[in-house]
Amino acid sequence: MEPDVLVAGAGPVGLALACALLQHGVSVRVVDRAQAPATTSRANFVHARGSEVLDRLDALSGLPEESVRAMTITNYAGDRPMMRVRFGDPGLHTAAPPMVISQARVEARLRDRLAELGGRPEWGCALVGAGQDADGVTAALGDGRTVRARWLVGCDGTGSTVRKLAGIAFPGVKVSERFLIVDARLDTTLDRSGTSGWVHPEGMLGAMPMPGGQWRLLAYDPAFRQDKPTEEQIVERMRHILPERTHGLGGRLLDASWASLFSVHRRLADSYRQGRILLAGDSAHAHAPFGGQGMLTGIGDAENLAWKLALVIGGLAGERLLQTYEAERRPLATQVLRGSTAATRMNIAAGPVGRFLRDRVMVPAFNLPVLQRWTTYTTSQLWVSYRRGPLGGRGSRPRSGDRIADVACVRADGIRTRLHAELRGRWAVLGDASLFEAARRRLGEHVVHLRPVDPLPAMLVRPDAHLACTGDPTRWLDGALA
Q1: Can you give the pLDDT at residue 186?
Q2: Whole-number Cα distances in Å, 79 to 5, 75, 127, 185
């Protein structure tokens, strides 16, 4: 049986997309060139919006309990604390906490959820070719088989085969030289309630607590010129520079479970769509790791794309709706790329002017509570709004495109619930029965009727928790889904 959507890549973005599509009743097939799931990962922080997406996919269960709540960052100059940033509630009413947890664990939970929905990734199954026509895409696999699908989505990373086959350019620039990354046990007295970082003339070094008693060590080390080093060589280099750059505060590296190195590049695809081929996540945008925005932005892409593809595949919307995917998500990626690039350059500043701005201007400023709240607010991505996009609107708040908080509601059967818990592949009408019937006539069965506990204007909420419109939804739906 031909799937509606073929997803290339079984990382967090591909898995999130597949789960969301299945929630909407869309058939999906997931292939990945890797022989097995990854057991290690560079990403290790899920911000509040990422937790919200996982919650709406019904894939959050168990992750908060096994995560580390390391919600502070303390920066040192030698053994002297210079700055402490405290992350907290940005005041945007979310039931989903930020989490320090390995991307590998997030992927494992998403695979479990995919299995609950009747899907599974196909490992060792590389996509090597793709041709499209007016009705769909024919994809060639590495074992000689072909797959016919109505749509193909590339979630296959920065080296995306799908993007290359679609002929979509991926311009960008190199932002930094080498970073070393090591997951290890330490003999240390560092506080596990937060991340520690050190500025040093030879490069910054950071230590973040990880589940299971391990630490994630990250060091900028342009002087390390070993060509294609082994994991053992990277670990030995980290073992050497850890006490040197932390003035002994970092303790001793005992043993490592994983090590790698990378350089930071900033890249953004010229387009997120070419005909029946679309891109999401790192296939469309490559970020610096600072701020934990890469995986967060990618799974946001997946959720945004899923409900739009579902409506088009179900014949409830025209293909014009898919244009709003890039129109809503690419400007966000541009903004995130600027922020993560600026953070990278600040952290690796080597010249006297850069160090002066970082150590004498930025560090004192970030000790101010107002900037700490701003940091939490910015990195959470709970601020994201599409009000300026093609589905957005003006007027009094909330405006079309704004995120709607996870408000307390009552279902039609009288049971109390949360708005976001009721979305999970559905739209929500907060209003009277006539508005619910108007939405259901246009959207089919994937609509739920809720009554907010506290007074709110009547509204139609999208499956990704953004406001479609207030009042009667008929006119908005006729325009958006045409």
Answers
A1: 97
A2: 54, 10, 51, 21
